[in-house]
Amino acid sequence: MPSSPLADRMRPQTLDDVVGQKHLLAPGSALRSIIDSGELPNMIFYGPPGIGKTTVASIIAKSADRKLHRLNGTTASTKDIKLILDEIGSITARNGILLYLDEIQYFTKKQQQTLLEYIENGDVTLIASTTENPYFYVYGAILSRSTVFEFRPVLPEDVVAAVRRAFDFLSAERKETIQPEEGVCEYIAQACGGDVRKSLNAAELCVLSSPAKEGVRTITLERAQELAQRSGLRYDRDGDEHYDILSAFQKSMRGSDPDAAVYYLARLLEAGDLVSACRRLMVTACEDVGLAYPQIIPIVKAAVDAANMLGLPEARIPLADAVILVATSPKSNTAICAIDAAAEDIRAGKVSDIPDDLRDSHYSGAQKLGHGRGYLYPHAYPNGWVRQQYLPDAVKNARYYTFGSNKIEQAAKAYWDSIKKTQK
């Protein structure tokens, strides 16, 4: 039996055979039109693993009738790069070198700079792939000379057809009948989360682990569940997926969608990331609910403390309570807007001496300096308030806080309006 992975043995030979990526490869789309033109620019393919980046690069090389040189950023050295560059001008590189650099984010800046001169003069056409955001990890000079194409996870319904083809391919390869039970192909496609390579490998594992009876291998749903379970969970605590999930988590709570909020909470907790879930939950309670329901801050803090005391899996219970409470609470961002506006003035240099009457007067000699002189003690006045200047002169007319439209802040506004109008 072949030793190479099934995904390699079944690798598509034409763009029309590639599963998914219709936004890039459908007739008339940008990338498809570039490929069909035969004139290849430098390109960066960005997206999660197992969704066709290497396959598309191979098809591009074949359609352009050019030899494809491959390097992997995790293992290649500067010497490996130079060995390929030494072919420039030779008969094997008569149309220039087409270099596929997988996982370019692992190349150092110096290694990427080695390629730059040859990319600029056209001796090398670069197709790089990365699972990390290229705008963070790719050397700026190379990025500016390349076009970025984002590859997306394949929808489960598109993967189903690939899984069925995998069982047919294995049946022909092994010269035996392979019969997946109802729901097997759909389960594998769903469980592998849009990773075509993982889906195909799961299908092959199902075949290898299912006994043959009279030339027939029956693939049970139970076996598929055993081999494909949790494999669709994409999560890297230092990668894009981590920050994308956290972003969606907070935006769902801010957007008052409790269903989406608990979904993203579940994704974080299934990946074991209790710390990030708790931190982002606390931030959202303060930033997005804030003064519309200020009691929520100690409530969420208590839920976070309980979660950390319990640990997973029980931590999911107080966190779910808190997430749903945050999502369904009234919203106000007036506090964060106020502090950000004040910080902006400070960064702009709007800083001057604190008014003398507000300065510390609890030490010997303060009176001689005039510190604290003229300060009006609010509690000595009706309703505990008296009009006086608190801001430094540089920003004495600044207004950082604006009352929100929610019930609690409007009640506070009405109260202070009634108090302050009594003093002119």
How would you sum up this structure, described in words?
The chain has helices at residues 6-9, 22-25, 30-37, 53-63, 78-85, 109-120, 134-137, 140-144, 156-174, 184-191, 196-208, 221-228, 240-254, 258-270, 274-289, 296-310, 316-328, 334-347, 366-369, 407-420, and strands spanning 43-46, 68-72, 97-102, 124-130, 147-150, 177-180, 212-213, 216-219. The longest helix has 19 residues, at 156-174. Helix content is 49%, strand content 8%. The chain has a five-stranded parallel β-sheet, sandwiched between helices. It has a three-stranded mixed β-sheet with strand order 6-8-7. The mean pLDDT is 86. Helix 9 (156-174) crosses helix 10 (184-191) and helix 11 crosses helix 12.
Treating each run of at least 4 consecutive H or I residues as one helix, how many helices?
20
- N- to C-terminal separation? 93 Å
Helical percent range? 40-55%
Structural class category: alpha/beta
Name the poorly predicted regions. none
Q: What about the largest sheet?
A: 5 strands, parallel
What characteristic shape results from the CA principal axes? Answer: elongated
**pLDDT averaged over residues:** 86
Numbering strands along the chain, what is their spatial order in the largest sheet? 2-3-4-1-5
Total E-strand runs: 8
Question: Which features would summarize this protein structure in a list?
Answer:
424 residues; alpha/beta; five-stranded parallel β-sheet; three-stranded mixed β-sheet; 20 helices; 8 strands
